[in-house]
Design a protein that fits this description.
alpha/beta, Spore Coat Polysaccharide Biosynthesis Protein SpsA, Chain A, 2 domains, nine-stranded mixed β-sheet, 19% strand
Length: 296
């Protein structure tokens, strides 16, 4: 048993220090924490970890800067306990996190991942409710009526709309090797890609609505800035098209259809196009609407 938190780190250390403190407050002690520093300037993180001198907390600094996607890939290989969580370095957990996910795994022996309840917070760690988070709630409304989803049902739901907060998810460590899709081609949607990879090999997705994770929605975050970039929607289109073919081969026809439509991704592109139009950037607006309407 035990949960290994592995954190790809390259941002303001004040957020990471909050993360570390939240892990230290767990109601259960069977956890490890590894910080994988991607050559962030300064020594604040290293110094704090040295000061704590807690044998459960490990600091590793990459020999060179790998970039966000490659550093996450490294994190996935670091798990040493039964369960692994690849958190964002600006996220945090509630004191009950380890307890919630371990008990969920115990209740659902076929589960390869547990998605706990998530509280979204802003730069100042106060609860927030952005349009993106409202859309996620809408997308998951059917799925979250259940405590466990079989692989086909989970993938079909996610192809309709990606409602995951992947940094909050605890994965069974022996299932992580199934994740082959996390690479530069799908950098902006890589987290969804490796969740689907794992589910395609079998097992279930367990859901526990108990709030246990704090996901930080920062204006300057990779996900927030990338959503405004046409390249993001190009990546998403390639991913959903390729995944639709995989699902059709598997015989998961409804999931394949949902992937081909990827409705919420198209709505997101439309919303971004309207934002560009409001900013009087007609060229960007046309490009984004082209992504929203593209089929081939």
């Amino acid at each position: 048993m035990g949960v290994h938190f592995v954190v790809p780190y390259y941002l303001d250390p004040r957020y990471l220090l909050e993360l570390i403190e939240s892990v230290l407050k767990q109601t259960r002690d069977d956890w490890l924490l590894t910080i994988l520093d991607d050559q962030y300037p300064g020594t604040a993180a290293r110094d704090r970890i040295a000061e704590l001198a807690d044998p459960r907390i490990e600091y590793v600094r990459n020999e060179r800067n790998l970039g966000a996607t490659a550093n996450v890939c490294q994190c996935l290989t670091r798990g040493r306990l039964d369960y692994i969580v690849v958190m964002g370095a600006d996220d945090a957990i509630e004191p009950n996190y380890v307890e919630v996910v371990e008990e969920a795994f115990a209740r659902h022996p076929d589960a390869i991942m547990v998605h706990p309840g998530v509280t979204v917070v802003d730069d100042g760690s106060d609860p927030t409710d952005t349009l993106a988070d409202q859309i996620k709630r809408f997308a998951r409304r059917s799925a979250w009526q259940h405590t466990e989803l079989d692989a086909q049902t989970a993938v079909r739901s996610l192809m309709r709309g990606n409602w995951l907060y992947v940094p909050s998810i605890a994965f069974r460590n022996d299932a992580v090797s199934r994740a082959t899709a996390l690479h530069d081609e799908f950098g902006s949607i890589g987290d969804l890609a490796w969740v689907v990879d794992m589910l395609l090999e079998g097992g279930t997705l367990a859901i526990d609505k108990t709030p246990a994770f704090r996901y930080r929605r920062r204006q300057g975050s990779h996900s927030s800035s990338g959503a405004k970039n046409v390249l993001r929607f190009d990546e998403e289109h390639r991913y959903y098209t390729a995944t639709a073919a995989r699902l059709q081969e598997r015989g998961w026809t409804k999931a394949a259809t949902a992937a081909r439509w990827h409705v919420l991704s198209r709505l997101h592109a439309t919303q971004s196009a309207l934002g560009a139009l409001a900013a009087r950037d007609a060229v960007l607006a046309r490009a984004l609407m082209g992504r929203a309407l593209r089929w081939s």
